[in-house]
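To the wet lab folks,

You asked to see what we're planning to order before we commit. Fair enough. Below is the target structure as tokens, and below that is the sequence we designed to fit it. If anything looks off to you, flag it before the synthesis order goes out.
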């Protein structure tokens, strides 16, 4: 209900017809100056995992002649490690996810703005691959060292530094 009343557009996974149905609306929204956000993985995975990006929705940015602005998102515990209570995976319900977060003892959301990607002369698959590479690099343990971000649970060596 909350998502439906804030303008969320739901796409049936694996149904090309659904993507085509909303495609024109996305391009119109972008031309009208609205901001359009989408999650190109199409599903969720445990933190630290970046699934393949579906390229279909990147086509709307090409058609609207606007750059793609990727972001990386992660949820951290008090020590700067990935907080597994934020994982929303498998058959977990929304209510189960909210309860896990409420019981977690607190977490911090980190939104990392990445360089914008030009769509001029680009193909949707290229855009998806470039965005995926940027997000994966930003979420890698090596990025924590390079950017002086808190160490993650997967990066035991930088925790000592």
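Sequence we intend to order:
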């Amino acid at each position: 209900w909350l998502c439906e009343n804030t303008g969320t557009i739901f796409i049936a996974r694996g149904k090309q017809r659904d993507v085509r149905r909303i495609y024109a609306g996305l391009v119109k929204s972008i031309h009208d100056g609205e901001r359009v956000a989408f999650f190109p993985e199409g599903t969720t995975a445990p933190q630290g995992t970046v699934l393949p990006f579906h390229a279909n929705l990147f086509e709307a940015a090409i058609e609207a002649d606007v750059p793609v602005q990727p972001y990386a998102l992660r949820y951290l515990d008090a020590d700067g490690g990935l907080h597994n209570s934020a994982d929303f995976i498998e058959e977990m319900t929304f209510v189960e996810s909210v309860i896990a977060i409420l019981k977690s003892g607190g977490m911090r959301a980190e939104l990392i703005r990445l360089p914008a990607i030009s769509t001029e002369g680009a193909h949707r698959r290229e855009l998806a691959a470039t965005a995926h590479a940027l997000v994966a690099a930003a979420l890698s343990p090596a990025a924590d060292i390079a950017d002086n971000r808190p160490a993650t649970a997967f990066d035991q060596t930088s925790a000592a530094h």
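Structural context that might help your review: The longest strand covers residues 71-76. Strands lie at 71-76, 108-113.

Thanks,
Computational group
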